[in-house]
Fold each of these.
Amino acid sequence: MLLDHLPPLLPVVPLLAALLLPPVGAVRRGLVHPLAAGAGAATAILALLALRRVLAEGVIHYHVGGWEPPWGIELVLDHLSAFTAVAVSGVGALALLYAGPAAGAEVRGREASFFGLALLLLASLLGMIVTGDLFNLFVFLEVASISSYALVATGDGRAPLAAFRYIVLGTVGASLYLLGVGHLYLMTGTLNMADLADRLPALASSRVLAVAVGFLVIGLGIKMGLFPLHGWLPDAYTYAPPAVTALIAPIATKAAAYALARILFSVLGVHRALTEVPLMTLLAWAGAVAIVAGGVLAIRQNDLRRLLAYSSVSQMGYIVLGIGLANRPALIGAYLHILNHAMMKGCLFFAAGAAAARLGGPALADLRWMHRRMPLTTACVIVAALSMIGVPPTGGFFSKWYLLVGAVEGGQPVLAGVILVGGLLAAVYMFRVLEHACLVRREEGDHGPAPPSGRSEASPGMLVPLLALGLGILAVGIWNAPIVSGVLRFAAPAGLR
Amino acid sequence: MGGEVVEAWGPGLALVPSLAAAALIPLSARAPALREAWSLLASVAQAAVVLSMVPGAAAGVVLETTLVELAPGVPLVLRADALGCVFAALASGLWVLTTVYSIGYVRGLHEHAQTRYFFCFALSLFAAVGVAFAGNLLTFFLFYEILTLATYPLVAHKETPAAVQAGRMYLAYTLTAGVALLAATAWLQILVGTVEFRPGGILGEAVPPATLWPLLGLFVLGVGVKAALMPLHSWLPVAMIAPTPVSALLHAVAVVKAGVFGVVRVLGYVVGPELLGGLGAWSAVAWLAAATILAGSLLALAQDNLKRLLAFSTVSQLSYVVLGVALGTPSGVVGGIQHIVNHGVTKITLFFCAGAIYVATGKERVSQLAGIGRRMPVTMGVFAVAALGLAGLPPASGFLSKWYLIRGALEAGQWPFVLVWLASSLLNLAYFLPIIISAFFRRSGEAEGVTEAPATLLVPLVVTGAASVLLGVAPGAFLSLASRAAHDILGGILP
């Protein structure tokens, strides 16, 4: 039965669609976007089915081509990978839907290759998530990166330069990751994650292991934009076409964050291997630095997309901080934040694209009268902003709540303080956005310039995904408890407090 | 939270009208009459639901609604206990009058963004009732933050540079306080495994003083900003840039009372009087409050802007509540809780008067009010009654809570606090009497041609003025609620 092949189907469905697009586009250009959006939706539905199956039957191990591991490639769907797949494919599908009307002039005549690249990106991110093999993960990571470079470069003006910078740094990241994998392979002779997890404890005090892990962490740190390895991120998000940023920003860094957690907990099994370096403590503090630095940098921006890009640097810090704390509540918070940040950043970048199209520019000052001209978009921005700040009952509050409880339980009052201060920094930069979008500067005693007549709300094709995310942020917040006790409780490795 | 707990829909239902209004108001933006009808309807419905629960709560029957789980093991739970009913009844009852007043005010001044104004008002009242009925700290925090954010657009309403700046300051204070409260909540969750409000507190004796003091500090910071406890009060006078109905209901009743209400909840239902007494923390909080009472009154003396004067007076009066509860004696707690109501009703009256004067004359400074009492006799007559009430003179209700408070201080054997209250009363007279005297007995050409404000403004201020007198003459329901709440809090340590 087809559904027995769920793990490979997740990357294969968007991959096949990507291959189909050029011939279809050659026949009828108008079919390209519906097909791409349909493939995205199908992938998201498959991911939900996969999650349901994992919840019902437990972890699914799939051996590609029937080859047993450690010789063949193993795909694994457990609570963590199924959850992340739902988050990435869900937001990814909405971004693909949004990309149709958003892409506009930049891709006219090149629709097939543009959406082909987008689907290739989605396919490779899902590949990273389902794979149980370190080298296989590298391959998917590279495919994802290369399609991202190409997508960023489709923009005009400074986009090619931003893409070049992204290529240079991204390649360094990939090489470091590959070096790390190579070291592990030399030491153990295997690339299968489960197999490695069995063999590594014997090498716990090895210097080589420490070096290998260092390469892996820094490599993935670049890919996920962890401060101070985030150099590629602000330009790429700012100068890429809005449709591209809306796709890359919410989900690409999340897959890298997932890979980091997967390697640390499923391969190294942190508590058993690696006694040489206080790796987790370092990670937690790196996350804390990222939260503050990203937040401070975001406050200084006057371009909405650049502000959101630095906000991403700050928010990725929360995920890394949670991974570094490595106790159950903190990990639940980190994993929940993968979903929450994907949704709120998607929502904000969707809105930024819509606002740029309707109000004329990406600068904060261009948002004047946004609340009158685009009321629904503005409402979504408010919800996403509150989630970013961490106001209940939005989703963002609850990921911070679990992180906070984790930090207190881990006896780390300073890190708890950073989690809270990060929320205040987010309040400063998000309220700068809201002030521009919702308040019209008036003079004393003046009832103000007459509001512009008429609305110019984003087109339905952009508005629907935007509203879906806005409502989703609220829904995840209100019903976070079932997600946590049903899924994420099992995603944290067994044996943790 | 004291007495018998019954699962019921009531407390949850109390949230529905305001939330429904918040949804319907933006949809009716094009039809102002319909839009205001939703506000009025919601305020009446909310008041009806809340008031229907008062008799039960006074008798010790606590209705409880459990909604979703906020986090595993921490439900979103609403409980209408005696203390909660005091605040909810106060806020909902006054919302009805404020809605009428608002309609007159914003139309009289042709305000912009009226839809946003009524939307945020409805959302604020939703949050206030949620704060009142919150059954645990996380639920409390949820509504407390919604209250902060729903009132922000009202503070920045004018959208002038000064208003935008005031809004920023408001957020900086209140969001920082929220962060402290959240930290305390998470700490509590780890420390004792629950964040539920229970009469007499949840912190057992297991908690060492070295932990308790910083925890208490976070709590005081968390609820102290909204309670305008000095030196955390600076946002309140600045927030007076908001339209007067906002200052009246939100910054004299809903928001600041959510702060002092939070102080009572935290001291009485989380930390517990027994533990506080043992630490000597009672007196630390009490002296902070006493200092705020005197300093607030002194600063009020120096104000010329009428609304700012009222704001500093609020700063001072809020600490009456804190000091009363911090005394930890039955009369002190009863007086403190009573003063939440008495000050609320009296102060909203004064703000209504200030707003009526502004709409009728455009004047907002004390020095401009000479002779105004001859032109607006009803408004200034009500103003005089309410102002004297705040100073503790009958017939308005202020004297009653002050009586209980002073008795509470004597019960505790703390006569310095008696002096603090007496001094504050004198200061109250010192800043209110000159206004009244110059309004009625001095002549000024400026007030020529001025008449009373329209009925939509006049009727609410007469009603709240009358209510303030009525609360002094027949305290009835609120007194029994306050006694019940005091009994809940102190039940454990009363002989």
Amino acid sequence: MSEVSLETPLTEEQVKSLAAGDKVLLSGTIYTARDVAHSRLVDALEAGEELPFELEGQVIYYAGPCPARPGQVVGSAGPTTSYRMDPFTPQLLESGLRAMIGKGDRDKQVVETMQKTGAVYLGAVGGAAALIAQRIKEAEVIAYADLGTEAIRKLKVEDFPLIVVIDSQGNNLYNRD
Amino acid sequence: MAIHVDQIKEAVAEMCIEANLVLGEDIIQGYKQALERETSSVAQEVLEILLENAEIAKKEQLPICQDTGIAVVFVELGQEAVIEGGDLVTAINEGVAQGYEQGYLRKSVVSNPLQRENTGDNTPAVIHTELVPGAKLKLTVAPKGFGSENMSQIKMLKPTAGAAGVKEVVINTVQEAGANPCPPIIVGVGIGGTFEKAALLAKKSLLRPVGELNNQPQLAELEEELLVEINNLNIGPQGLGGLTTALAVNIASYPTHIAGLPVAVNIGCHVTRHQQRVLS
């Protein structure tokens, strides 16, 4: 287990060097997307439309933040449970998505696709939403504004504390038996 | 003396904010005791993060968790109480709307479960009303996040399944939930009644403070046994392993039919929240 600081976008090489259990401090741009946003992204891919952001090397954070108080960048913003995004994830990985941030286990198809494309699943501490909000320096809605908290936001984060839960070899921190 | 709807609205709004910003002292003590018990560094680190998060939330007036829940409101209305100035349900929903707006809380409610359009003000609340003796109005606001709600289960057991059958349902539910409901969790268990009664008992059990056992010795014993078994599952804080998968198991029971033994398990996350006020 090691501790590494990483800056987005991530290369395949960077991602492949990470092992389950490693601690990561992530900085740079990441994108929020939850259930409906995932469904729309996949619809757009299938229709051959342009996506709201280029997926190559990018990181998606499964999160829907609270509204920002005046003078703040964003409200509390912890991870939501990841399995709900599983049906949509393989297609995003095939299109270049390099990492996902959430909480809870993923299904077999997601893990197999991660191994194939070279991607990593990072865990944030569920419920630590006030603490995580302090690591978010900029937030801007870039797509699907009609979804409110579920819109896609471009976030600039600094030293977002994460742990590698599933690495690109398929090693999974939740399976310890 | 009549109770004016404005009092209700105000109380509900304040409770929505307070519940979401300030973590209960019983849960904080639960984290601290868990921290002393844990031997794994990852588990310790997660618990330290949760304690720090609760401090930041309180100090910066930020919600503890971004999932500020759907507002579940328990109403105990004294049968001699008089409500004036409007109706109770509207007053509660106006209070929720005001609280979620003024507290900068997330609006997580969709108007129709299939069409899924956000209502924009986190209403309607889920309201459970009970008539009780007296002239007071007791309101409990319990915002419920869905990471844990989604991991809840109900089973209609055979009447002869007994305590062993109940245990099996609870353990399986927690095991299947794994890391998803944000452990360390609070496990609410409803035994008996009917299908919907068991679910309501399980939900209400989540209101009992962490560390307080059932006042029926048999059920208290079952709670203690279940807590030990759950914490032996090694799911641990955030599912990353450890001795603390649950902070508490709270059971409530009700008489039931000769042919059945309903068991409902409602999972509460590590920020299981509730606030209570009595108006008169």
